[in-house]
Design brief:
25% of the residues lie in helices and 29% in strands. It has 568 residues and is of the alpha+beta class. α1 packs across α10. The protein binds adenosine-5'-triphosphate and magnesium ion. The site of adenosine-5'-triphosphate has 15 residues, from β8, β21, β24 and α10. Adenosine-5'-triphosphate binds next to β8, β21, β24 and α10.
Length: 568
């Protein structure tokens, strides 16, 4: 491709509204352009990378018997009403009306459409399992579209859905997907982790997210420094065993702690470690007030709380609720002498506290030498706290570290969440109608383009891996007015094309400085410069990843290139 013919609008300045490096570089290198907030056009270079990402995904989906289809983006509200999501999905769903005043949505996801399709066409267990997938544009009116392609309002997703007669069959496909996703992200060269995630209201035995590691990631991952264990921090299990001091139990002692409200204030006022303090919080859980205890140096994970109690909603109680219940401020709440009937649940670490400190349920007072089970009753112990860096990894191997991640994929067991309300059934071996057991599996295709740019760049621009680069080779003609240079560059362009390299040929009449800056910005793996020594048949070669440069004789070019691309 001659650069004079194509459309690569590079920019020198960093656009002021792009605050992450991937967004800046994809704009500056001319891969994408914003149309409006969260909506982008893919220019030739961006589209080429996108297609390479898609082709890796297709290959791996096809290997596990996924079958590609393409579903409509325009979806009738009736389907969404069947699952209740027309009202539940909220403002993220783009809604519109047709000329007959009928409601429609632009597809944010396709569970309803595919369940309806399969409901109409698949009647027997003999046709199962079935895995269908598509690569398609999704629409979500995100509250905060940002970071360019990372959180768009119109974006490209690969979504797959599987249909099964049995849970075992779902299990098998889920496992296949997990492996296929691992292969996909490995082939994409991403530094990523497979993370245990929260199944949310859908429940089930687990769901995994695939996180590309990056400091700008919106999710925090807890991972082991020696094993493959990784989980969302809200989910990472913590130990139920804590060392307990053998100190003798002392009598409770009420002490004045004027204006000491936070754990840190109380700990330093009493000269105690925070792990001696009992943090007491009151939650409103499905409209019931519940007392939750964690150690002073720990924090409560709402998700764990919700899962432990199998609750629908978990919120901190309002100050009003608390005052009505205990007539003291939040900073003085404690578990001793609580009103009868109030449920108390505690994190496992509470059981190991000896002669601890808690609020006295009276403003300005705490109680010292409190001992769980002696001085107050606990209805249930559970794993309720956030894991911390330095904790032992839940699989017993290594220490927990934290990292930020960009969610690039998510696999999910849906079971019958959609098939039941939509009455999507098949006939089993005994001729009995049963709801399809389902799974769904998403990959953020356009988000990956940005995640790659986050991981593969330097201060001069992008640095594409060989298998994803928009072109293989950047051929740069330094001076088009020099006949030797022009004819050698033209000759090499022809040769390289005949060897089937995808060459980007910078034949523009631009200054060399401009060409080199653009070339680094675009970031093809190898640059071949035809310059001053063209008359001697010598070209300059520069490797984008190592920064190394050297001179080659033109006769050596194809052989050395084949070695570089691992083709020889
Ligand atoms: P997030 O928590 O980041 O909003 P999600 O849980 O809503 O993601 P899914 O519904 O599981 O995402 O969608 C599957 C994949 O699509 C995600 O793993 C992500 O890679 C991608 N994705 C989701 N929302 C967006 C978006 N607004 N822009 C770009 N990609 C997205
Ligand atoms: Mg989302």
């Amino acid at each position: 491709m001659k650069q004079s013919n194509t459309f690569i609008p590079t920019m020198r300045e960093t656009p002021s509204d792009a605050d992450v490096i991937s967004h800046q570089l994809l704009l500056r290198a001319g891969f994408i352009r914003q149309s409006t907030s969260g909506v982008y056009a893919y220019l030739p270079l961006g589209l080429k990378v996108l297609k390479k990402i898609e082709s890796i995904i297709r290959e791996e989906m096809d290997k596990i018997n996924g079958v590609e289809i393409l579903m409509p983006a325009l979806q009738q509200a009736e389907l969404w009403k069947e699952t209740g999501r027309w009202s539940n999905y909220g403002a993220e769903l783009f809604r519109l009306k047709d000329r007959h005043d009928r409601d429609f949505a632009l597809g944010a996801t396709h569970e309803e459409v595919i369940t309806s399709l399969v409901r109409n066409e698949v009647k027997s267990y003999k046709k199962l399992p079935l895995t269908l997938y598509q690569i398609q544009t999704k629409f979500r009116d995100e509250q905060r579209p940002r970071f360019g392609l990372l959180r768009g309002r119109e974006f490209i997703m690969k979504d797959a859905y599987s249909f099964h007669a049995t849970e075992e069959s779902l299990e098998q496909t889920y496992e296949d997907m997990l492996n296929a996703y691992t292969t996909i992200f490995t082939r994409l060269g991403l530094d990523f982790r497979v993370v245990i995630a929260d199944a949310g209201s859908i429940g089930g035995s687990g769901t995994h997210e695939f996180m590309a590691l990056s400091p700008i990631g919106e999710d925090t991952i807890a991972y082991s420094d020696t094993s493959s264990y990784a989980a969302n921090i809200e989910m990472a299990e913590t130990s139920s065993e804590y060392e307990k001091s053998t100190e003798e139990l002392k009598e409770m002692d009420k002490i004045a702690t004027p204006s000491q409200r936070t754990i840190d204030e109380v700990a330093s006022f009493l000269n105690e470690d925070a792990d001696k303090l009992i943090k007491t919080l009151i939650f409103n859980i499905d409209d019931e007030l519940v007392v939750v205890l964690v150690r002073g140096d720990h924090d409560i994970s709402d998700i764990k709380l919700k899962n432990t109690l199998d609750a629908k909603s978990v919120e901190l109680a309002t100050e009003d609720d608390i005052t009505k219940l205990l007539s003291c401020e939040v900073g003085s709440i404690g578990p001793v002498k609580l009103p009868i009937g109030l449920k108390v649940i505690a994190d496992h670490a509470i059981a190991s506290i000896v002669n601890g400190v808690c609020g006295a349920n009276e403003d300005g007072y705490h109680i010292a030498n409190v001992n769980p089970d002696r001085d107050f009753a606990i209805d249930k112990y559970a794993d309720l706290r956030f894991i911390r860096e330095g904790d032992v990894s839940p699989d017993g191997e290594g220490e927990i570290k934290f990292a930020k991640g960009i969610e690039v994929g998510h696999i999910f067991k849906l079971h019958t969440t959609y098939s039941k309300p939509m009455n999507a059934t098949f006939l089993d071996e005994n001729g009995k109608a049963k709801p399809f057991i389902m799974g769904c599996y998403g990959i953020g295709v356009s988000r990956i383009l940005a995640a790659l740019a986050e991981q593969f760049h330097d201060e001069n621009g992008l640095k594409w891996p060989k298998n994803l680069a928009p072109h293989d080779v950047h051929l740069v003609l330094v001076n088009s007015k020099d006949e030797d240079q022009q004819s050698l560059a033209d000759e090499l362009y022809t040769i390289l094309k005949s060897y089937r390299y995808d060459v980007l040929y910078d034949d523009r009449q631009e200054r060399p400085g401009v060409k080199f800056i653009d070339s680094d910005l675009i970031g093809l793996p190898i640059r071949i410069t035809v310059g001053k020594r063209a008359s001697e048949g010598i070209i300059e070669v520069k490797f984008r990843h190592s920064g190394e440069s050297m001179e080659w004789q033109k006769e050596e070019l194809t052989e050395k290139l084949q070695a570089f691309f691992g083709l020889s």
